Amino acid sequence: KGAAATLGVDRVAALAGTLEAALQAAVPAAPGALPDADLRRTMALIDADLQAIAAAPPTAVTRPAALAPAERAGSGPPALLQVLDQLDALLALGDIEALALLRAHDGLLRTALGPGYEKLVRQIQGYAFEAAQASLQALR
Question: pLDDT value at position 72?
């Protein structure tokens, strides 16, 4: 469910959420028992969507250009603003590259963002990109 939502596969995420809720609400069945018909249908829909995604030709994804590490880019305000803008753009895309950017510019961001930096890191590590983007904007 979470991976599908992160990738923007909304129908699969919704179906996975439905399946998860149904499984949590279900009375434990005997070991080896088959899921009921509704669960099987939901699983079949998820499977069909995933098969269609796997069979689809790759598409170009527009990502912001990569930045050099802070040591090469300089550590003055223009470099900081560039890194913050890059991080904001990656979070808006829900791109896990945001974590790599954090690691590459750890010292610069830790110093600039202060105590809120650790919360931002935890949010990105937990794939909470919308929350991370809101935190970043508040820290700026």
Answer: 38
134: three-class secondary structure by DSSP: helix
Length of the chain, please? Answer: 140
Predicted pLDDT at 19: 80
Q: Which residues contact 70 (CB under 8 A, 6 or more apart)?
A: 79, 83, 104, 105, 107, 108
Q: What is the pTM of this model?
A: 0.49
Contact 92, 8 (CB under 8 A): no
Q: Which two tokens stand for residue 33?
A: 């028992």
User: What secondary structure letter does DSSP report for 46?
Assistant: H
Task: Decide: 134 and 99 in contact? Cβ < 8 Å.
Answer: no
DSSP string for 58-111: P-----PPPPPPHHHH-SSHHHHHHHHHHHHHHHHHT-THHHHHHHHTHHHHHH
CB 86 within 8 A of CB 67: yes
Quickly tell me which residue has 């269609």 as its tokens.
52
* Mean per-residue pLDDT, 106-116: 91
102 or 57: which leads in pLDDT: 102
What's the rounded mean pLDDT across residues 20-27? Answer: 73
